[in-house]
Amino acid sequence: MSDSAFRVVGLPGDGIGPEVYASACRVLAVLQETHGLRIELDEQLIGGAAVDAAGDPLPQATIDACRRADAALLGAVGGPQWDGNPAELRPEKGLLRIRAEFNLFCNLRPIVTHPALHAFSPLRPERLRNVDLMIVRELTGGSYFGKKWRDAGQAEDVCRYTAPEIERVTRAAARIAQRRSKRITLVDKANVLETSRLWREVAHRVIAAEFPGVTMENMYVDAAAMHLLTRPADFDVLLTENLFGDILSDEASMLCGSMGLLPSASLNEERFGLYEPVHGSAPDIAGQGIANPYAMLLSVAMMLRHSLDRPAAADALESAIYRCWSDGVLTRDLRADGLGTEAVTEAVCERLHGAASAQTTA
Fold first, then answer.
1. pTM to 2 decimals?
2. Which is catalytic among the residues 42, 189, 220, 322?
3. What number of H helices and E strands is found in the chain?
4. N or C: which end of the chain has fewer CB within 10 A?
5. Do the first three CATH levels of 1-109+258-362 and 122-256 match, i.e. the same topology?
């Protein structure tokens, strides 16, 4: 394959996943026209759809396809029809396994507010001005992957971290901070947890030794949760462990007005990434054509930037989305008379075509 050709594994998944994935495919087709990209999509199974079709939430064919790919684009996994399945056949197990299989240790969740959306956040507009932060969450360690057991009267979930796990995600956060304002907030619970004390020791050592221009402050997770709502514009890069990052990123989604607006990237050290919206499968609205595609389309932009190294195409897509917001092209999770999935996707495609035509005639 030439330098301009990329292989992307498509994972539509469950619930509204196939609907927002279809939006991503349409937009990628336009970007291939406007920016000269060659993207080969290889659609595979994951989650509940994979359990039903192959008896496995992450079939070997999906793993093999990802090994040949530059990136994977995921819609969503999960739904109530699989809630009674044993643990190994739950849709979410497929997502946990793909993270572990490809060592996707670094989860990025950008939180950027837009003036046209301030009214849809529960926070006052003056608190939302100039919010542009990145949550860097360690994704393959901690209590999600530690030893677990229970009996009738007790249960245990072990939270375990090693120094190398902390070192690599700290380096990832520091490289992002270097491109921003060179500030990191390390979020932990070091007054209680030994794992947090290890995080502080290791993370500060890495920053001091390898990133002299970057500063790092410490903040307890309970304080961080409060300050995300009272002074969110003061944060730049937040670095934290798996569980805390999961909770804080969902809380921070409310700054933007809806979880349907937030993308994410899960990366390994070889630039392979899994890109997905954070909103989940939303089975209550699946099949109705009203799913918000913006988070998935912003995840496409992250894929173009972080795994495919096509920043100009990423910028063009983000600009088209922001113009849609400024023009009031909003979905039903934001307002009752909002547009459906197809109409919003078409609006983004129109603005991509329009911007490309303007450049050609300029």
1. 0.93
2. 189
3. 12, 12
4. C
5. yes
CA distances from 202 to 165, 237, 238, 299, 341 (A): 10, 17, 16, 30, 45
Whether 222 sits among the annotated catalytic residues: the reply is: yes
How far is the C-alpha of 261 from the C-alpha of 256, rounded, in Å? 7
The architecture that CATH gives domain 1-109+258-362 is 3-Layer(aba) Sandwich (3.40)
Active-site choice (246, 275, 294, 333): 246
Select 122-256's CATH number: 3.10.310.40, 3.40.50.300, 3.40.190.10, 3.40.718.10: 3.40.718.10
Catalytic residue among 132, 236, 250, 322: 250
What average pLDDT values come out for the chain (362 residues) when binned by 10 residues?
Answer: 77 98 98 94 98 98 98 97 95 94 96 94 93 96 92 96 98 96 98 98 98 97 97 97 95 90 95 94 96 98 96 97 97 94 98 87 66
What tokens does 175 get?
């490289």
Short-list 181, 174, 175, 101, CA closest to 139: 101
Question: How far is 283 from 294, CA to CA, in rounded Å?
Answer: 18
148 counts as catalytic: no
Q: Please pick, among 52, 222, 309, 315, the residue that the annotation labels catalytic.
A: 222
Where do the domains of the chain lie?
1-109+258-362, 122-256
The reply to whether 250 belongs to the active site is yes
Residues 186, 215 contacting (CB under 8 angstroms): no
Q: End-to-end distance of the chain based on CA atoms, in angstroms?
A: 33
Which of 21, 144, 161, 294 does the annotation list as catalytic?
144
